[in-house]
Every structure is written in C-alpha cells, then in structure tokens.
UniProtKB/TrEMBL annotation:
GO terms for biological process: siroheme biosynthetic process. Pfam families: NAD_binding_7 (PF13241), Sirohm_synth_M (PF14824). It catalyses: precorrin-2 + NAD(+) = sirohydrochlorin + NADH + 2 H(+). This is precorrin-2 dehydrogenase. Keywords: NAD, Oxidoreductase, Porphyrin biosynthesis. Coiled coil: none annotated. It comes from the Bacteria.
Length: 192
C-alpha cells in the first residue's frame, strides 16, 4: 500500500533549498521550475553544471550560491533537497532538517526522504501527481505520458466553464454541491 499523502505546494509562498548543483541538482530544479516558474529556490553548490547555470539564468526567483553547504543555510528555508555526491553530508543535513521540523528529499536515498517528487500530468489548470511509492520512477514517467495523451484537449475549456457556473450558482452549500455534481455527471455520461 502506498501510504504517501499528495499535496500541491505553492512554491512561491515557501522557500526551497537545493544542495548540490550537478546533474541531479539540475534535474530537481528543472522539475520544480517546470511546474512552478515562480518558485523561490536557493541552490548552494561548490561547483555548478552548465545545464543548471543555463536554466537558472531565466528565473529571477532562483539564487545560486557557489560555496560549500553551511548548516545555517537551513535557517531561511522550508524544504530542502539534497543532490550532492556526499552521502555523509546528506545524512547530516537530513538529521538537522528533522531537528528543525523541515522536510527533506535526498535524491538517491529514498529511506532518508520525507517526501518524493512525482511525475506530473498537466492539462491547463488540471494537474495530476503520480507516485509509485518509489518502486519505479520509470513507470511513473510512462503513466504521465499515457495520461497526457489520454486526457481530452477540451479539459481546460470544461474547467473554465465549470468555474463560470460555480461563480454564478446561488443557494446554500448543499444546493451548489448538488448542482455541480449533476452538471459534471452529464458531461461524463455523454462520453460513455
Ligand atoms: C524515490 C524517488 C525520490 C525522489 O527523487 O524524489 C526517486 C528515486 C530514484 N530515482 C532513480 C532513478 C530514476 N528516476 C527517474 C525519473 C524520475 N524520478 C522521479 C521521482 C523519484 N525518484 C521518487 C519516487 C517517485 C515515485 O514514487 O514513483 C520522478 C517521478 C520525478 C522527478 O524526479 O522529477 C522522475 C520522472 C519524471 C517524469 O518524467 O515524469 C528515472 C527515469 C528517467 O529519468 O527517465 C530514473 C532512472 C531509471 C530507474 O532507475 O528507474 C533512482 C535510482 C538512482 C540510481 O540508479 O542510483 C532512485 C533512487 C532509488 O530508487 O533508490
Ligand atoms: N547523475 C545521475 O543521473 C544520477 C546520480 N546519482 C547519484 O546522485 C548523486 C549526485 O549525482 P550528480 O548530480 O550526477 O553529481 P555531480 O558530481 O554532477 O554533482 C554533485 C554536486 O554537488 C556539489 N557538492 C559536493 N559537495 C558539496 C558540499 N559540501 N556543499 C555544496 N555542494 C557540494 C558539487 O560541487 C557538485 O556540483 C551522486 O551520489 C550520484 O551517485 C544517482 C542516480 C542518477
């Protein structure tokens, strides 16, 4: 059983620290920015890879700090992702995050992670997060591709219409819930 609880974070409202700016650091930063171009991220790394430098320059809310990690880097951040090649450092950061009640992801060490990144299907405002409980990130990626193809292109206009209707509905909460359930039932019945 996958006991993880998915939530959707407003990355512009919290601050994220990535430690390590090589290949894995680049992948994690790219995954965040693809979803949240307004994410407030600090990347601390002794060296930065070309790809990460190239990506970061287009995002004003990303700050790069070229130096070794310091414990005080954790002071100003809500979540932390470890992406160096130093396992002992990752253990130290994970312990310190736990002490501070910060949540941490350690890219290549699932047992040290408080949260995983997921595959993300996006159709306009609709977003679906996928996790395989860490069993197969490749299957998560394939499921994303499958769902991206399967979701109808009119998904966004359906959402826009439902938002208009939702704003115009009157009556008490129960009435609104019933009307919205009836309307969406009709949409899905039509498709069968
Ligand atoms: C536990 C987790 C923790 C975390 O990183 O957050 C984790 C861990 C590990 N990944 C590894 C490898 C690969 N990861 C990918 C891809 C993705 N990995 C992602 C998430 C997660 N990866 C979390 C679990 C998510 C879940 O619950 O399913 C995705 C979904 C999201 C993202 O990272 O953005 C993104 C797909 C995005 C997309 O395209 O949709 C590919 C495939 C590829 O790149 O084509 C490979 C190579 C093939 C393979 O090994 O499967 C290794 C072995 C490293 C080694 O060999 O040493 C570990 C460590 C281990 O498992 O021990
Ligand atoms: N590249 C990949 O696709 C994969 C890598 N891994 C593992 O993930 C880890 C990272 O891999 P890569 O990103 O490829 O390595 P990398 O060598 O490209 O990047 C590591 C980065 O960490 C930085 N760093 C090291 N010590 C630091 C410190 N004390 N403070 C701040 N920054 C520090 C380095 O300057 C470097 O930029 C490695 O342990 C690797 O074995 C696992 C699976 C796949």
């Amino acid at each position: 059983m996958n006991t993880m609880f998915p939530i959707f974070l407003k990355m512009s409202e919290i601050t994220t620290l990535i430690v390590g700016g090589g290949n894995v650091g680049h992948e994690k930063l790219a995954a965040i920015l693809k979803n949240s171009p307004d994410a407030v991220v600090t990347v601390v790394s002794i060296e930065f890879g070309e790809e990460l430098l190239d990506l970061a320059k287009d995002f004003p809310s990303v700050t790069l700090e070229k130096r070794p990690f310091e414990i005080s880097d954790l002071d100003d951040h809500h979540i932390c992702l470890c992406a160096t090649d130093d396992y002992d450092l990752h253990v130290k950061i994970q312990e310190e995050c736990n002490k501070r009640k910060m949540i941490v992801n350690v890219a290549d060490t699932p047992p040290l992670c408080d949260f995983y990144l997921g595959s993300v299907v996006t159709k306009g405002d609709l977003k679906i997060g996928i996790s395989t409980n860490g069993k197969s990130p490749t299957l998560a990626k394939r499921m994303r591709e499958f769902l991206e193809d399967a979701l109808p292109s009119e998904t966004q206009s359906l959402l826009d219409n439902l938002k208009d209707i939702r704003d115009k509905l009157t009556g008490d909460f129960q009435d609104k819930v019933k009307q919205l359930n009836d309307i969406t039932q009709k949409v899905f019945d039509k498709k069968e």
